């Protein structure tokens, strides 16, 4: 029951698509099914993203608990304090730049175009890399080769938690 307005089934993909498009355009029920399928697919993708977000947050909490990160950073004598403080300062600057974009520009100035302030993004990336490197060096004597894994899981947990902010 293909439409007869010009598209033919001669085996080419282009003609097949044209015939299907003409058929579905003439059938409102098919359009409704396609729209329903698109809504269902969006719900499935949203549910998958929610499960992934929750998994990263739970993993970050488990790493914090299992490796006793907070107590280790405060009391372990093997932690290199100068590197730790450099990491804290670098992450603080990174957080301040993020707050500038996420809070000040979005809610105070009500500016939606971030391209005017895009020179701050490379600066934020540099501070993120400095902070991650300094933190890794600071706790390497404590956890060794597991340190980058711990840092990555904690970073992903932080990113997923911030995704819940308005």
TrEMBL record:
Keyword Transmembrane helix set for record: yes
UniProt superkingdom: Eukaryota
Alphabetized UniProt keyword annotations: Membrane, Transmembrane, Transmembrane helix
Chain segments annotated as transmembrane: 49-67, 79-107, 119-139, 145-165
Keyword Transmembrane: yes
A matching Pfam family: TMEM128
InterPro entries xref list: TMEM128
Protein name from the UniProt record: Transmembrane protein 128
The species this protein was found in: Thecamonas trahens ATCC 50062
């Amino acid at each position: 029951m293909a439409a007869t307005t010009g598209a033919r089934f001669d085996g080419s993909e282009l003609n097949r698509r044209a015939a299907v498009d003409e058929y579905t355009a003439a059938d409102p029920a098919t359009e409704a099914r396609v729209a329903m399928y698109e809504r269902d697919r969006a719900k499935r993708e949203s549910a998958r993203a929610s499960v992934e977000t929750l998994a990263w947050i739970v993993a970050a909490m488990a790493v914090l608990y299992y490796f006793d990160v907070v107590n280790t950073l405060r009391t372990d004598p093997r932690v290199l304090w100068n590197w730790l403080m450099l990491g804290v300062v670098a992450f603080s600057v990174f957080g301040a730049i993020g707050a500038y974009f996420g809070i000040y520009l979005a809610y105070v100035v009500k500016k939606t175009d971030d391209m005017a302030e895009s020179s701050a993004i490379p600066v934020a990336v540099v501070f993120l890399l400095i902070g991650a490197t300094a933190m890794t060096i600071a706790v390497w004597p404590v956890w060794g080769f597991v340190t980058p894994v711990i840092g990555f899981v904690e970073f992903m947990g932080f990113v997923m938690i911030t995704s819940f902010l308005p």
